[in-house]
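Hello Y.,

Per our agreement to keep a running log of every chain we model this quarter, I'm adding this entry. I've kept the format consistent with earlier entries: sequence first, then predicted structure.
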Amino acid sequence: MNNFEFYNPVRVVFGKGTIGQVRKLIDAEKKVMMVYGGGSIKKNGVYEQVARALKGRDLVEFGGIEPNPLYETCLQAVERIRTEDIGFLLAVGGGSVLDATKFIAAAACYEGGEPWEILTTGGRRVKAALPLGDVLTLPATGSEMNCFSVISRRSTQEKLAFGSPLVYPVFSILDPETTYSLPKKQLRNGLVDAFAHVMEQYATYSVSSPLQDRQAEAVVRTLIDAAGDVLGRQDYDSRASFMWAATCALNGVLSCGVVQDWTTHGIGHELTAFFGVAHAESLAIVMPALWQHQFEQKKGKLAQLARRVWHVIQGDEDSQARAAIEKTVEYFHSVEMPTRLSDYDITEADIQKVVERFGQRGDVLGEHKNIKAPQVEEILKLCL
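Predicted structure for the entry above:
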């Protein structure tokens, strides 16, 4: 097991009827900005619950955060914060709203040049941030219990991530009943997103971390077992399992002491930036192809995945590892998630945009640092 440090200060308030607790979790002296998306929270009752809980408090609203939050929109929120003396940010929505709120929190206190530098430097220049909390309505990204954020920029067709311990939420309220009104597509995306998060921390190579491996396997098995009920009916227990599994997929525990590979996310972000493919959709496209391309390097952990999660015990290591890839694709299809670029009318000519960007930036990906622009092109061709 590799050396590691673990730190997570987020207070999690989990369960039905917990949204009202937001009142006692926010300093009554602070002016609050509620940040939300396209307005679905006003249709599903969440907005009303938050407004009732904060009745009498100094509260302003900022809506309109996009599914892939835009830098340009975030800057509008920053301007309001500076003119209205906001002291606390409350994200109400899914991972995109939370990601936007984290960036807004950091950008509002940024004293460097353009706030985009927060993203181009991966968060290294973040020295201060406004405090923030959240009411989660869509399990998927794990942003409710980590310090990471991903932001897109319309003007340059870029999508970049940053992380800073200064943007950990002070608290996260997780009420599984908020998921009841979600459309099937969003639930599907959340299941796949969380699954991919676990695999980025698992499907690399062994460093003798048996506890972390078992924890990762438990999270993905929970997602797999819950999927049918999550997509089929409004069942509290399955929604609760889904919500907590998605949080645990990326709250830092699974990454302790292990080797990680975020190549799928790195390539997937570019598919979103250039072609508008939803984040989870991009992951379902890239991950199986990446595993095929890096088969020799990953086959040990893939074979373990096959045995422990997919219950494939026949055959040698190679056949088990290939079965893990096949079973993963079958799982994506079982939740009605497409897995090919052609499903989105993206052609071989189109992918050159992605390859060129990796070449221009000189990015090096993979747990072995062996994936550059030429390898990205090979992987994307496997996705066609």
